[in-house]
Design brief:
mainly alpha, Arc Repressor Mutant, subunit A, two-stranded antiparallel ribbon, elongated
């Protein structure tokens, strides 16, 4: 299946179920997915789990638990990274990096507000603003 086809299939509630499995990083049952995502019934969860299974992203074991088989980065998932059970937009790292650089510069070099300092602060604030804007944009896309 091409990336484009996979992106078309991995949308809406199916994407939310896949996201849930990526976050938990352990085998899950349909009931756990239903409760975790507040779905109306376990059959709704089973429908989306079976769809993910047909796509080859998860598998079902003999105990009725679903396991992650493959982690894909399509669509909105391209903008997120997973670390220790947390999934966060990579722009969080950029925001932290630029903010850390600005704080370090202010502390280490005692701002005298000469033209060089002003340029550096403006550059850092611009980078922080762009990173924050992208972060908000990604969170808005995730909620739709």
């Amino acid at each position: 299946m091409s990336e484009r086809d996979l992106e078309q299939e991995l949308r809406g509630k199916t994407l939310q179920v896949y996201w849930y499995i990526l976050r938990t990083r352990k085998p899950v049952t349909a009931r756990e997915v239903q409760r975790g995502l507040h779905l109306s019934s376990p059959s709704v969860a089973i429908h989306h789990l079976e769809k993910l299974s047909r796509l080859g992203l998860i598998s079902k074991d003999n105990m009725g638990q679903y396991n992650l088989v493959e982690e894909v980065k399509v669509g909105l998932l391209r903008f997120f990274i997973g670390t220790g059970g947390y999934i966060m937009p990579r722009h969080v790292l950029y925001l932290a990096y630029f903010t850390g650089l600005l704080v370090f510069y202010i502390i280490a070099f005692n701002l005298s507000f000469n033209i060089k300092d002003i340029y550096i602060v403006i550059l850092a604030l611009s980078s922080i603003t762009v990173s924050a804007y992208e972060l908000v944009t990604i969170y808005r896309m995730k909620q739709t």
